[in-house]
Amino acid sequence: xxxxxxxxxxxxxxxxxxxxxxxxxxxxxxxxxxxxxxxxxxxxxxxxxxxxxxxxxxxxxxxxxxxxxxxxxxxxxxxxxxxxxxxxxxxxxxxxxxxxxxxxxxxxxxxxxxxxxxxxxxxxxxxxxxxxxxxxxxxxxxxxxxxxxxxxxxxxxxxxxxxxxxxxxxxxxxxxxxxxxxxxxxxxxxxxxxxxxxxxxxxxxxxxxxxxxxxxxxxxxxxxxxxxxxxxxxxxxxxxxxxxxxxxxxxxxxxxxxxxxxxxxxxxxxxxxxxxxxxxxxxxxxxxxxxxxxxxxxxxxxxxxxxxxxxxxxxxxxxxxxxxxxxxxxxxxxxxxxxxxxxxxxxxxxxxxxxxxxxxxxxxxxxxxxxxxxxxxxxxxxxxxxxxxxxxxxxxxxxxxxxxxxxxxxxxxxxxxxxxxxxxxxxxxxxxxxxxxxxxxxxxxxxxxxxxxxxxxxxxxxxxxxxxxxxxxxxxxxxxxxxxxxxxxxxxxxxxxxxxxxxxxxxxxxxxxxxxxxxxxxxxxxxxxxxxxxxxxxxxxxxxxxxxxxxxxxxxxxxxxxxxxxxxxxxxxxxxxxxxxxxxxxxxxxxxxxxxxxxxxxxxxxxxxxxxxxxxxxxxxxxxxxxxxxxxxxxxxxxxxxxxxxxxxxxxxxxxxxxxxxxxxxxxxxxxxxxxxxxxxxxxxxxxxxxxxxxxxxxxxxxxxxxxxxxxxxxxxxxxxxxxxxxxxxxxxxxxxxxxxxxxxxxxxxxxxxxxxxxxxxxxxxxxxxxxxxxxxxxxxxxxxxxxxxxxxxxxxxxxxxxxxxxxxxxxxxxxxxxxxxxxxxxxxxxxxxxxxxxxxxxxxxxxxxxxxxxxxxxxxxxxxxxxxxxxxxxxxxxxxxxxxxxxxxxxxxxxxxxxx
Length: 901
Description:
InterPro entries: HATPase_C_sf (IPR036890), HATPase_dom (IPR003594), His_kinase_dom (IPR005467), Sig_transdc_His_kin_sub2_dim/P (IPR011495), TPR-like_helical_dom_sf (IPR011990). It comes from Chitinophaga horti. This is Sensor histidine kinase. Residues about 1-45, about 540-550 and about 895-900 have low confidence and may be disordered. The protein has a 5-stranded mixed β-sheet, with helices on one face. Strands 1-3-8 form a 3-stranded antiparallel β-sheet. It contains 34 helices and 8 strands. The longest helix has about 100 residues, at about 620-725. It is flat and about 145 Å long. The protein is mainly alpha-helical.
């Protein structure tokens, strides 16, 4: 509801109604007083008039005097101060009898006057239905005021019956105003009609009424009132209604009129409606432009609460894989809500959304730190708020998925769902947790329940649709339901690309590759695998290019700021020198003027004295003496004046010399600056050339690693395809082992081209990803747990590659031989640095171990030979023990090119 529009209507409505009532009372009183016999000359009292005439009385025109007396007394009772119920009842009785008598004798004046008073009485009694029955006796424009008053009385209508009655009065008010040529009142009636349509949920009627108001204000060339109408329509319009004018059209109109009128009351909501509408439609680029403009315009307009603008920009940049901007706007939304809407629930919502953006772009450590407090605080919210419950379950899932499931099921028994989207998220979160535990049947059950509930959601939640369908596809693939997985992937593809993060697109292409490989559709599988890698590489390259562009912009900005600061300092020095010169000239002029005034005063004094001496001959000698004395004084003054003049000339010469010296110094400084700029330009060009050569060298090295990695991935894909054509288990096992070895090498090259240092490998991240992939290859053995104890060590490729291959062989052998017959167990991988120049790699399992005979036989296998040979190539000590499990240890001496992180 527009506060300005409502205020303008409500402030005009009741005062005008009150004025009308008083005016109507005066009119009726004047009509009654038109006859001299009325009121003042009345012969009967009200009590006598109330008794009436005998039933046998025959009414004639002579009874008009009695009718007028009854009307006069009735009107008097109606307009009396206080308006007690007894006065209103007396007025009703007198006027109704006067009306009946007027009808019997055909006294038109009495009939009309009585009807008018009865309409007034009905209004005073708040009986709107009875007022309409006497409405025909109301004259001219007073009909409009009566209807406006009636609408004002029943304006807060809430029940359907009250709304229908109010609508009838408002429409009648519009008709009467149009007949009376009162367009302003007719426009006001459209406002009431639109509001009553809104209460009934009739969007078409609402839009029609407000469009009529908009056309009226436009015809009056009143853009401010037109903006008010558009703004109120925007607040009342349902976003699901796509008929004209839809939400986007209304928002564009509000923005245009707000800019032209300078009125910003509706600007914030209009920008949000437009940006969000474009975002929901998948028009990401246009939504980004609108929201960036909104941020600037709202900032200049002084609108500080811009949380939703920041949140939408964070969503858009997450979809576009722009990590720095997504994190910037996610932090800005959290900071904005802390400053201007700091309720605990709002802070929790935007804290979780910032954490989601951090996790989306691989900032797991920051994600954990941000949500650390939520694990121990907010107990009330964890018990009652479903948003907090689901967010807390997502945190708990990372360390204890079974505990997260138990927590969600317990909350569902005690906390009712507040809205449908939270119920969808509840089932989706349960499905994800069950999939982490490899319980695919329960996972699919909850995922499909979430899919069924999504039928009740609108397009605002298309991002949730895509997320649920991708999770159903992933779980279906793990369960071996390839056709079902393909079906849900196709459904996810129906969502506009602009609403699906690029990371989800990477995941979708990967599972399409898996499905086609399992179904032996190898050509399609290879195509999807290539698309998966292209998406993954584009995500990496986009981020790197954006970082380089930001660094270049920052360097250019700093350089320009330094140059401007230097120029500003030079300008300040020159201005100070000029001010000093001007001050010296002013002082010289003041001294010269003072000397000139002193000489003029002295000459005037001499003239006065000469005149006095000439008047007295008696003092001629004295006069001559005084004249001689004055002449000597004048001579001294002239000499002093010449000295002052000489001093002024000397000062002027010194000033000129100072200015020349200043100018000479300025020229010299300009020449030195020019030489320095030339030298700086040469140095900068050389530095840029060297930097360009270094960058090209690093880029070429990364590109080599990138292409080696891609070639190795193609080899792995070809080996995977080849394995589907083999029937011999030994050959298939050999190919799988070859795939694992090639994957270990490929992972090394991947880490090198993704690293800022293309010559060194971060072993902590490398070993974690290698073990995760080996775990995926051995997903049929979920009872085997893997534990990592990896120190932050960085090695060059000559050391990292053999260690990766040794790890691959050791872990693969442990999976194959250490735990036969489904025996559960644990594999511990350690990479420590016991000494400064020494690294110790250990792979230990608690399996069946290796007897001496088997240990000697295993020493001749390809895997054992490969581990020994690789250890020998690195000049490392290799040892293997088989008591109480198997322990493989490789002790490696570091050189200058490897160091701890």
